[in-house]
Amino acid sequence: MPRSQPLSLFAVTAPGLEALAARELNALGIVATPEDGGAVWQGTPEQLYAANLRLRTASRVIARVGEFRARTFFELERHARTLPWQHFVTPGRAVRLRVTCRKSKLYHEGAVAERMLAAIEHRVGALGATEAEKWSDDEEEGTDAQLFIVRFLHDRCTVSADTSGALLTYRGYRQALAKAPLRENLAAAVLLASGWTGQAPLVDPMCGAGTIPIEAALIARRIVPGLAGPGGEPRRYAFREWPGFDRALWTGVVQRAAAEILPAAGVPIHASDRDAGAIEAARGNAERAGVLPDLQLAARPLSAIEPPPGVGWLVSNPPYGVRVGESEALRNLYAALGRVARGKLPGWTVVLLSAERSLESQVKVRFTEALRTRNGGIPVRVVVGQVPETVSASGRPRA
Asked: Which of 45, 51, 228, 318 measures 20 to 30 Å from 32, CA to CA?
């Protein structure tokens, strides 16, 4: 595909993360607009490469193959055969299709997939293994197959090619897990939505496997997600198998990103958890991400945290009532978090990924909502508040 040829591109995000992804793209000099489910823009192959390598909050990037209206299989076959499949797949390559049909005359997803695969072979030649699968967006490891996403809505068919392969949330470092793990792109979204930029100290006193502090270190070091895996080598992307893949252009994109990496975080990042096994998992993940020297990890209870000097940010993903423990124990945990914050972190910013307003209230910090999304199917909010310098006798912030 020629460098100058524009592509219709869409960065897919979890609900609520659309504006963050658009902001990331805008920071790269890409004029993108948030829409339901992601951010859209018209871009070049170079921008496609950079978006995949650099986006922290997106799940994947897809490229529009074509769009047409069809109410019969004859119309579907005729239009599908004219699409430029040869730009996205080579003869002999495996292909996967994900088809959804809603409010359309053509409602049989398997029959639509069969016609689409025939159209691809008509245009490209014999393919390798082919598969039509139910919609799922949770795989972390890529496959050798090129994924096409086919959506029928009100008789309008939209066909897109996945450019990413494995989900962009999969950096490659998070191989050891603790209880209720947080995905990498959601951890990055918590940090970015809260306004933390890598310029202030950060503490996570319930870090689990370390995803939040690791993503914080990556931001502070300016390590892009695509270079955050073991060895710092760029991860595998689907577009690298496309017929028009420009290796020299890709090499330049990678080299520019690598040249931006700072030698150290520059601010202290403390991560602790009462579970020693979680800290070991965090240590292994941080080492694979190349940021272990930037973190101070310790197995200790919440009450024993030792924050760095000065004013900084407490950012954490505490347990939710729907996931672990009893409600009374959780209320006590959040109340303890508030006591620690007021006692040890005056003037600090507190950022929580929260599923329960009643639990937030136990912290006795005035929170504002920065973001709404879902974590593991659970509606959650990113809330941001500031610990006052002084509190009243009741333990509540002074007005």
From this structure: 228
Kindly state the tokens that stand for 224: 């892009």
Same domain, 157 and 203: no
Within a domain: residue 230? Answer: no
Range of the domain at 119: 7-162
pLDDT at 255 over 90: yes
Indicate if the pLDDT at residue 2 is higher than 70.
no
Q: What is the CATH number of the domain that holds 214?
A: 3.40.50.150
Cα distance between residue 369 and residue 205, in whole Å? 21
3-class DSSP state of 354: strand
Cα–Cα distance measured from residue 387 to residue 363, given in angstroms and rounded to the nearest whole number: 10
More confident of the two residues 320 and 302: 302
Average pLDDT over residues 234-245: 94
Give a yes or no: residue 243 inside a domain: no
pTM above 0.85, yes or no: yes
**pLDDT at 375 (0 to 100):** 92
Residue 146: beta bridge partners? 95
Identify whether residues 214 and 148 lie together within a single domain: no
- Number of domains the chain contains: 2
* Residues 131, 214 within the same domain: no
